[in-house]
Amino acid sequence: MIKLTFVLLITALLQISSATSFSQTVSLKFRNAKLETVLKEIGSQTGYDLVYITPLINEAKPVSINVTNAPLTEVLEKSFSNQVLTYTISNNTIVVQKRTASLSSAAIVDINRLLDKAAPLDIRGQVTDTKGEALIGVSVRLKGTSVGVSTDVNGRYTITVPDEPATLVFTYIGYDIKEIAVT
Fold first, then answer.
1. What is the pLDDT of residues 71-114, one digit of tens each?
2. How far apart are alpha carbons 178 and 130 in whole angstroms?
3. In sequence order, which residues have a C-beta less than 8 Å from that of residue 125 and are 6 or more positions away?
4. CA gyration radius for the chain?
5. Phi and psi of 104, rounded to 5°?
6. Which of 177, 138, 174, 176 shows the shortest CA–CA distance to 159?
7. Cβ–Cβ < 8 Å for 146, 139
8. According to the model, what pLDDT value does residue 152 have?
9. What's the rounded Cα separation, in Å, for the pair 112 and 116?
10. Using an 8 Å Cβ cutoff, are 58 and 91 in contact?
11. The whole model's pTM is what?
């Protein structure tokens, strides 16, 4: 009986321990700080390890963030918005990497020149299947042009479109082609 109680107690404690790692909250207040500084503070508050390449992280834009007891994923999303980098979380490790597909500033200038429009719009989204799971590598392209991107490991994408009616075309092997008007 004592052995059974001991095993149940250990099991309960392990479940509580793993549950707290998934519900990490972070409080930060930075203004124009280096992304590396922000990530180190997130790591110290959560106990998560960080993996990144220093020259790559030096390409990141400064981060301004002010959150109190916010979920870890929300803080990371805010920290990585408008960055050339993205992140993944794996086994209590935050891995920073370059976005797999993004438009260069030269491509944006070419879009403007081709379409002869003033201010392009950045459209952001996430592609998921019917179960809500992210789809990696979905092709997202601006209909009638060669402008396109692919979704990242989280199914997210950012594409620049002209400030006028446009249609995005989503293609993925094994799925129907989907066209969505940008409004």
1. 988 889 888 888 888 888 877 888 888 876 544 444 545 554 55
2. 14
3. 140, 156, 157
4. 21
5. -80, 165
6. 138
7. no
8. 93
9. 5
10. no
11. 0.45
